[in-house]
Design brief:
Blueprint: H1 6-10, E1 15-22, E2 26-33, E3 47-53, E4 63-67, E5 78-84, E6 87-88, H2 94-103, E7 114-121, E8 124-132, H3 139-156, E9 160-163, H4 171-184, E10 201-205, H5 215-230, H6 238-252, E11 255-259, H7 261-267, H8 270-276, E12 284-291, E13 298-309, H9 318-321, H10 329-343, E14 349-359, E15 371-373, E16 379-381, H11 389-402, E17 408-413, H12 417-423, E18 428-432, H13 435-448, E19 452-454, H14 459-462, E20 472-473, H15 481-490, E21 498-502, E22 508-509, E23 519-520, H16 525-534
Parallel strand pairs: 4-10, 5-8, 5-9, 9-10, 13-14, 13-17, 16-20, 17-21, 18-19
Antiparallel strand pairs: 1-2, 2-3, 5-6, 7-8, 11-12, 12-14, 15-16, 18-21, 22-23
Helix pairs in contact: 3-4, 4-5, 5-10, 6-10, 8-11, 10-16, 11-15, 13-16
């Protein structure tokens, strides 16, 4: 592949090079600059991240650059200027720009309001992007506002952008703003002729560098998950997903174990294999183990890994199949979350379990009405072959508890359309049978700006999963579909503290939003990382 020295990127600046895996085709290069040398655009830079394509080393992604001197904004043609409690923050001219916009009645400074205008300064056109933050913005509001501003900078075509952060910001707010800039500039154009991903560079005051230490890694992990989900199902097959996870583990310094069909059968994961039977593409059981605290307990993250879902013999309508490449979004989330935890060296033990396969139709496919065994020893009546995710998760959760000896289990899955009916496309449906685990998840959701809503573990509803001919059936009947699906999975957790996250709604954008274009969103990555981080002290 060859080597690259830091001076090749930043002129004479000395630095250290860190190469990180980003899929088989992409590599991230982190450059830590230690001297003020180099071009004016690079002078004073503390940290930048450039993503190169292995074949031609073309720039793929933008960078965060923390400047030593606030005067570095002078070379940026676009300036993002927050307006907090009516006061504009930013370089010279920001106050005047804000006052002019307010006087013209085109900008009020209200929460999440974004407006741009241009001025002539020293013979150059400078664009001011004003961002209304209201009086006391939440982390969610900060992210959406900075995400919208990043979109405006993209529309203006600016390659170098100064992004101001109010001095009154808490470290969490500063990190949320930086994360939003990175997430909002993501694009997936691998298969688009002439498509070019963003090479935008965001320059920020150096005093915020420490507060944003985790930002690039977490944003990179979210984009990693997005890439996995956005790959079409003919590319992101179970085998390819396993390769992706194994290479991420190799470069991240944690363990990966991949089981093939014969090994899966020998281990007794028959519910998983029943779903996989209909496809000519081989299934994979993906096991990732990160041990940041060898003496501590294991938190298991179990992700649904259906790389394509036709519904099987309970066939989906054709319109519903178009985006079924996203049915492995839970798997992408746990792979990316463990990768982020390893790179940031969390002092916790994590195991990710992904039962990856396709759910398709053939003469070998399983049928409605079948009774199938499972790793737990329970027999399952198949009421619907399009309720396949809970079958693969049943064996994966059992594996996490019995083989990985996990003290707690969190599963994450694009499981039910009922979750979208109940909560729309922006909120994760959650269930938990352990109050401590749930309270930690609530705190993690607040920090990660991912919305969750708890549904009840109601025992009356659990009875809807009762089978007359087997231990349990995979379809709970009409009503409360998200809850009965979650309660089905709970039966295989062997009474270990358990939580279920249904991301059917927020895992995929049908149209672009402030922080993400249409396609995979990377939902759950930040939530799982923050949840794991919350267990560090313990």
């Amino acid at each position: 592949m060859g080597t690259l020295h830091p001076r090749d990127v930043c002129g004479d600046a000395a630095g250290a090079l860190f190469l990180d895996y980003y899929g088989k085709e992409w590599y991230t290069i982190f450059v830590f600059c230690a001297s003020p040398g180099g071009s004016p655009a690079r002078r004073g830079a503390r940290l930048c991240r450039i993503l190169f394509k292995r074949q031609d080393w073309s720039i793929y992604s933008m960078s965060l650059i923390f400047e030593k001197e606030d005067t570095a904004w002078g070379h940026c043609p676009a300036l993002l200027c927050p307006v907090l409690s009516g006061k504009a923050f930013g370089p010279e001219g920001a106050l005047e720009a804000c006052a002019a916009a307010q006087d013209a009645g085109v900008f009020c400074g209200g929460e999440r309001e974004v407006f741009s205008l241009s001025a002539l300064k020293d013979g150059k056109i400078v664009s001011f992007v004003l961002m209304g933050l209201g009086d006391s913005p939440s982390l969610w509001s900060v992210q959406e506002t900075y995400g919208k501003a990043a979109g405006e900078a993209r529309r203006l075509g600016a390659e170098d952008v100064w992004a101001e952060l109010p001095a009154s910001f808490a470290p969490e707010q500063a990190a949320a703003a930086c994360e939003a800039l990175l997430l909002a500039d993501y694009s997936f154009c691998k298969y688009k002729s002439g498509g070019k991903a963003s090479s935008r560079r965001y320059h920020l005051p150096g005093r915020w560098e420490q507060a944003c230490r985790e930002t690039e890694v977490l944003a990179g992990a979210v984009c990693m998950a997005r890439d996995m989900v956005n790959e079409p199902s003919n590319v992101m097959t179970p085998a390819r997903l396993a390769e992706y996870a194994a290479e991420a583990a190799r470069r991240g310094g944690f363990e990966a174990e991949i089981l093939r069909r014969d090994e899966i059968r020998a281990e007794g994961l028959e519910a998983f294999l029943s779903v996989a039977r209909g496809s000519a593409r081989e299934p994979r059981l993906i096991l990732l183990r990160y041990r940041g605290n060898p003496e501590g307990e294991v938190l298991a993250l179990v992700g649904k890994g259906i790389t394509y879902d036709s519904g099987g013999y309970s066939l989906k309508p054709s319109d519903s199949m178009v985006t079924m490449q996203s049915d492995m979004a839970g798997a992408a989330a746990v792979i990316a979350a463990v990768t982020a935890a390893a790179h940031l060296k969390l002092k916790i033990n994590l195991t990710a379990v992904v039962a990856a396969c396709e759910n398709t139709v053939s003469g070998e496919a399983y049928h409605p009405g079948d009774i199938i065994p499972s790793l737990s020893g329970r027999y399952i009546e198949v009421g619907n072959t399009d309720a396949e995710g809970r079958l693969t998760l049943a064996d994966a959760v059992t594996w996490a508890v019995r083989r990985e000896h996990a003290a707690r289990v969190v599963d994450i899955a694009t499981l039910t359309g009922a979750a979208i009916t109940a909560l729309g496309h922006g909120i994760i449906a959650a269930m938990a049978d352990d109050e401590d685990l749930w309270s930690r998840a609530e705190r993690a959701a607040e920090r990660s700006c991912e919305k969750i809503w708890r549904l009840p573990c109601d025992e009356e509803l659990a009875r809807q999963n009762k089978s007359e001919t087997a231990h349990i059936k995979n379809l709970g009947g009409k009503g409360a579909g998200t809850i009965t699906a979650g309660l089905f999975i709970r039966e295989f957790a062997d009474k270990a503290p358990w939580m279920h996250l249904d991301i059917a709604g927020p895992s995929w954008n049908s149209k672009a939003g402030a922080l993400c274009p249409a396609g995979g969103t990377g939902c759950g990555v930040r939530l799982l990382y923050r949840l794991a981080q919350g267990f560090e002290a313990q």
